[in-house]
C-alpha cells in the first residue's frame, strides 16, 4: 500500500536518562557543543545543537540508560555526525571520556563513547 502523505515529518527530540542532571548538562555542553535551551522542572533539561536537533535530559533515580546490546556490544540509540572526528576523539580522550571504539568502517570513521551516565553515543564522519 503506497503512502499517500508524509506520516512523520521529523524527530522532535531524543530523550536521554541521566543520573545527575547538572553534571550531564555541563558534559554535553563542554564535550559535544550542545546548548541549554531551557528546563521543564528540576529533573528535565532541553538541549539544542541547532534548530533541528534537540536532546532532552531526564534525571532519573533508576539506574538506566538508552543502550541496547548486539553480541555483547553496547549500541547507541541515535547517531550524530561531525566533520572533525579525529579532533573530537582527542578532545574526548583528554577529558577522560570512556571511548568504546574508534574505527574506520570504510564509508565513515566511527567514534563510540559513553556519557557520564553510561549512555553509549556514536559520532560518524562520512568519507567524502
From TrEMBL:
CDD domains: VOC. Gene3D superfamilies: 2,3-Dihydroxybiphenyl 1,2-Dioxygenase, domain 1. It comes from the Bacteria. Residues 7-126 form the VOC domain. Transmembrane segments: none annotated. This is VOC family protein. It comes from Paenibacillus ginsengarvi.
Amino acid at each position: 500500500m503506497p503512502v499517500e502523505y508524509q506520516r512523520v515529518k521529523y524527530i522532535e527530540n531524543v530523550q536521554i536518562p541521566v543520573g545527575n542532571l547538572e553534571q550531564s548538562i555541563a558534559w554535553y555542553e563542554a564535550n559535544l557543543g550542545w546548548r541549554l535551551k531551557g528546563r521543564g522542572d528540576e529533573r528535565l533539561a532541553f538541549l539544542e545543537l541547532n534548530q533541528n536537533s534537540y536532546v532532552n535530559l531526564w534525571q532519573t533515580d533508576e539506574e538506566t540508560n538508552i543502550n541496547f546490546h548486539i553480541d555483547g556490544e553496547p549500541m547507541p540509540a541515535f547517531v550524530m555526525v561531525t566533520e572533525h572526528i579525529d579532533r573530537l576523539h582527542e578532545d574526548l580522550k583528554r577529558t577522560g571520556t570512556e571511548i568504546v571504539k574508534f574505527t574506520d568502517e570504510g564509508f565513515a570513521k566511527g567514534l563510540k563513547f559513553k556519557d557520564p551516565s553510561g549512555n553509549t553515543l556514536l559520532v560518524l564522519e562520512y568519507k567524502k
